[in-house]
Amino acid sequence: xxxxxxxxxxxxxxxxxxxxxxxxxxxxxxxxxxxxxxxxxxxxxxxxxxxxxxxxxxxxxxxxxxxxxxxxxxxxxxxxxxxxxxxxxxxxxxxxxxxxxxxxxxxxxxxxxxxxxxxxxxxxxxxxxxxxxxxxxxxxxxxxxxxxxxxxxxxxxxxxxxxxxxxxxxxxxxxxxxxxxxxxxxxxxxxxxxxxxxxxxxxxxxxxxxxxxxxxxxxxxxxxxxxxxxxxxxxxxxxxxxxxxxxxxxxxxxxxxxxxx
Length: 261
Description:
The chain has 261 residues and is mainly alpha-helical. It contains 13 helices and four strands. It has one domain: Orthogonal Bundle (Farnesyl Diphosphate Synthase). A hairpin with a 2-residue loop joins strand 3 and strand 4.
């Protein structure tokens, strides 16, 4: 897919720089695993999985920009805008989003396109809430449900669509994705906490200093950890309703609950 940009070499290089910079590839892996769990072959969901990774990567490139989170590093390397400049980083994100929908246009499963398209916009809504919330804790769950949860829902919904899953399987996978998205975000918030200050008895770090709304800044570190265990349990219960071979999902939940990076 990235070879489509060969007549604009800097664009192609900057897109590849971020797509191939590492990362856990959780979203495409979930898409293919959901397809297999619902009776399909993992490769049936390959186009949808590639689209998800390109969408996720574009969101990271834009999220790192000075106007957003202003992060200089991503996955142990300079952020895209640090390596190629802000204009090229914006274009790399735009290019990856466009290529994602090109990939989806080649996918024969229309429900996969629908799920990913809807969730891609929900993710942007979540980013907007994050930028404009100003520490409003009433928006916390909605913000995280969109910003983080949307692409997890898209991942399992697209994988299920590529397998021709039943309504019951799809609904259970969405429940899994909702719970897993919250688990993922809470553990991310916990990892981001530096423990540099205590506010109203809550240990917080740079997120509080920047006015961000997170589970840790709202509930405190210990209660956030309790919530992560609750959502891990909900995610396990939901995926067990889908099929028998759930090892990937249960191991992913355990990894996320205890991850250190």
